[in-house]
Amino acid sequence: MEDFEFECWDCWETNYIKGRPKGFWTTTHYELPGEWNCWSCGAVNTTPDD
Ligand SMILES: [Zn+2]
Question: Contact 46/35 with Cβ under 8 angstroms?
Fold first, then answer.
């Protein structure tokens, strides 16, 4: 597991989103949830595509 930092579009607080490795063989690609709620204001954010 690895944490990725995203800033909330609404309040600009930094959120730490956990990513899961996409396969056993790679540590360079992670799968992130498509949507997450900001811990601070609760706004729904979408994860940008890589
Ligand atoms: Zn927020």
Answer: yes
